[in-house]
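Re: Re: token formats

Sure, here are both.
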Amino acid sequence: MGPIGIPELIFLFVLALLIFGPRKLPELGRSLGKAMTEFRRASADLRMTVEEEIRELERETSKIAESAKEVIAPPDGGYGYTAGEPGEPAPAAAVPPTAEEKPTDGQAKPA
């Protein structure tokens, strides 16, 4: 079934004129126009609300993704944990030992 054409519109107009009469038809048209305007306004408000909620969810999702990236690969290049946490190996020393800390003659340096 295709869209309503000109002959169908003329038939509907004549039918409405016979049912409602010439005095009620303009009033009926005004109320139909107001109803359609309200429907358009309500649907636009609903669309804006849905789009805003989608944008808010996308923002929250991107924040969670950023947090997950920081946990997986922190910006400081660290491992995301400290030495001594149970079950985790200690990270390699970031600074190599200085000459004072290295024993030179095979003996341990006194503390």
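Second one below.
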Amino acid sequence: MPTTFHVDRNNLRTTHWVESAREPLADGAVRFHVDSFALTSNNVTYAAFGETMNYWDFFPTGDAATGRIPVWGFADVIESRCDGVAVGERFYGYWPISDESVLEPVNVKASGFIDGAHERRA
């Protein structure tokens, strides 16, 4: 059961962990296990400027009152329905503070892929 860190977008001191059911993957999607990331003062800046710089749009929660702060880190592919992205591959890039993340890669190359406007490197 994936666990994700949610932040109240209007009061960054109000946070909570959310457990959710693992959804089946859609065609073209990839499930990643986020295994390490850096949590720095920059992440506070991402939260503080979440609206202005669209950081809250990186990993929506489905609830307009909460957000997920992006962090730089590493994740491994644990399930894939996307051509060019194989189970076991490791990627570096922006991830949510979460143990799992589901993305829909586009522009897949040997060096990585783009999800939305965010590049991940193999």
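Helices lie at 41-48. The mean pLDDT is 93.
- S.
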